[in-house]
Amino acid sequence: MVRYDDTAFRKMRGEWVQLANLTLMIGVVGPGASALEAGSSLTLAELALIHEYGTDTIPERSFIRSTLLARRGDLAALQVRVFKRILAGELTATAGLELIGEQCVAWIRQTIRDGLDPPLATETIIRKGSTKPLIDHGQLLNAIAYQVVAKGAAGAVATPPEAVAA
Question: Does 162 fall in a domain?
Fold first, then answer.
């Protein structure tokens, strides 16, 4: 009689089920999101939102969407590598999403360090003493993070349909 040991299959299946029940959030999330910007009444999450989308008086300087869109090929390749490692039992679902989150955070921070368009207004350059948009004290840059959360957990957000189509 031949016996089939399905232990490895069950472990792999468990990780895929776990993966399906997790969400990776990237941006100004977690404890840093509610911190106040130095000298302001805005939280860092509010500040990020203002710069990501712009306002009537502040131009859009997308650093999250623009980075992930520019890196979509790299991100897809990273996801494939990570998911293969999960499938092979080399990574847990959580560890795989954390690897993806860490890389995305590094890419987004590099986008900010490299500078964003449009250039700052002359008055802003004089006030802050720098020509780099989004970098004053480094608070926003350092607040960019990721979180792996269970779907439906507090803080987990659904992806807007327009973001999926992009």
Answer: no
Q: Would you say residue 27 lies in a domain?
A: yes
Residue 165 lies in a domain: no
- Quick one: pLDDT band at residue 154, thresholds 50, 70, 90? low
For the entire predicted model, the pTM comes to 0.81
What distance in Å separates the CA atoms of residue 62 and residue 52, rounded to the nearest whole number? 4
Q: Rounded to an integer, what distance in angstroms lies between the CA atom of residue 69 and that of residue 146? A: 17
| Residues of the domain holding 95 | 10-154
Whole-number Å distance between alpha carbons of 138 and 134: 8
What pLDDT score was predicted for residue 156?
A: 53
Residues counted in the chain = 166
Average pLDDT rounded to a whole number, residues 74-89: 94
Q: Are 61 and 134 in contact (CB under 8 A)?
A: yes
